[in-house]
Amino acid sequence: MLVKAIKTRPLLPPNDNLLSVIKESVLSVAERSIIVVTSKVVSIWEGRCVKISDKINKDELVKQEADLYLDKIMTQEHPVMLTIKNNILIPTAGIDESNANGYYVLWPKKPFLSAKKIYEFIKKEYKLKKFGIIISDSHTTPLRTGIIGIGIAYYGFNPLRDYRGKKDIFGRKLKMSQTNIVDSLAAAAVYEMGEGSEQTPISIIEDVGDISFGTSQDECSLRISIDEDIYSLLLKSGKWKKGGTKK
After folding, report:
1. pLDDT means over runs of 10, the chain (247 residues)
2. Domain locations in the chain?
3. In whole angstroms, what is the distance from residue 139 CA to residue 151 CA?
4. Which pLDDT score, from 0 to 100, does residue 74 have?
5. Domain 2-53+107-224 has CATH 3.30.559.10
């Protein structure tokens, strides 16, 4: 598998043209590639930016953007608000201030629709038939230091590799194992793209084995309800409050 980060000009909040940046920065894309784009530049493309000022209360902004939230807690380094957004456990509803030039950058409003729009542009511009799109973000893992990549949306391929019913090397039939292709590839891409001043918000992954391409997809393929999750006891222990935009 080959993962290549693409250098681009800076996309400037509060609004910039991601598609023109892709066109000027990506010279070619091979068939069966996966194109990973950071959620931040997708949000800037969509104008999902809020100017940081004394009039904007970040905590209230987080509550508006979150589906569910916990009141702010104090970690060892700084206070943080834990949230669930789009069925993903994420701090501060994904709102970020790094590389944002004085803005809060929110997550894309409808990330799966955004992924589809990027897919349609790539298909037309580069004359491709089989490829995929992932919109990525950085994510922390409980009880682990550092960040990894996660896919908040995808389009153009089956997001799971299913081992259920198959046998392991000793002949034992697998009952639950499925590989999350989206987050696995997002992790590799985010590592290559970096987190600082690299200026590489796009990554192209080639030679990915055993992927089924196609546009007939279910956005809920990777989702598990809190009741079904193996960490449900921990997730249910918090006093979650319902978020959402104020009326």
Report:
1. 97 97 97 98 98 94 96 78 95 93 96 97 97 96 93 96 90 90 97 94 95 86 92 90 77
2. 2-53+107-224
3. 9
4. 66
5. no
State pTM to two decimals: 0.94
Give the C-alpha separation, 38 to 204, whole Å: 12
Structural element, H or E, at residue 91: strand 88-91
- Coil, helix or strand for 24? helix
**Radius of gyration for the alpha carbons in the chain, expressed in angstroms and rounded:** 19
What Å distances lie between residue 167 and 163, 170, 193, CA to CA? 8, 7, 36
Q: What is the DSSP letter of 130?
A: S
> Which tokens hold the place of 92?
């501060």
Angle, helix 111-126 to helix 18-25, in steps of 10 degrees: 40
| Residues 226 and 164: beta-carbon distance below 8 Å | no
Question: From CA 219, how far away is CA 242, in angstroms rounded?
Answer: 22
Contact, 36 vs 10, CB < 8 A? no
Kindly report, residue by residue over 71-96, the tens digit of the pLDDT. Answer: 987 666 778 899 999 999 999 999 99
Exposure pattern of 9-19 as b/e (b: 16+ CB <10 Å)?
A: eebebbebebe
Tell me the DSSP string of 135-186.
EEEEEE-TT--SEEEEEEEEESB--EEE-TT-B-TTSPBPSS-EEEHHHHHH
Residue 151, φ and ψ in degrees, nearest 5: -95, 120
Query: From residue 99, how far is each of 11, 78, 117, 194 by CA, in Å?
Result: 10, 20, 24, 12
